[in-house]
Structure to design on (146 residues):
């Protein structure tokens, strides 16, 4: 599959705009995310109906302070709306996806603002500390009722 993507990028004259890494160790993921100006997560319409949860990558992108352009599927659309960290596009609509990416590439202020909002939301609501506080609160409530 990698060779096919590389050939397509080359045929379109875009090969110099991409880095085809293959699999990278998880601990190096933030390095690659932070090398990007915008993170993109296109999903098919049925993705969450088959899997039933949001993609971890969308949280990682926002945690790194990157604006996100992603398909408006359940879970991901909610994350984008709640965080203000990106643009949700119609799933499987390549023109809308491209327009959103181009819009952010042309508007550095929007990229920066969305990146800041997304990171702030993730730190407040989805960091280990915030999750631990929620778990502790549930445990405290449970202990009071017994």
């Amino acid at each position: 599959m990698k060779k096919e993507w590389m050939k397509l990028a080359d045929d379109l004259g875009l090969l110099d705009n991409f880095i085809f890494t293959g699999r990278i160790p998880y601990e190096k993921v933030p390095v690659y995310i932070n090398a990007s100006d915008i993170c993109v997560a296109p999903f098919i319409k049925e993705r969450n109906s088959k899997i039933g949860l949001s993609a971890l990558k969308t949280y990682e992108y926002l945690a790194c302070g990157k604006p996100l352009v992603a398909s408006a599927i359940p879970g991901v659309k909610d994350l984008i709306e709640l965080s203000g960290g990106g643009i949700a596009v119609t799933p499987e609509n390549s023109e809308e996806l491209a327009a959103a990416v181009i819009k952010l590439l042309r508007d550095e202020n929007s990229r920066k603002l969305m990146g800041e909002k997304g990171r702030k939301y993730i730190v407040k609501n989805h960091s280990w500390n915030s999750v631990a506080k929620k778990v502790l609160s549930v445990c405290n409530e449970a202990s009071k009722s017994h």
The first helix runs from residue 2 to 11. Helices lie at 2-11, 29-34, 47-51, 56-63, 76-83, 94-106, 108-126, 128-144. DSSP finds eight helices and three strands in the chain.
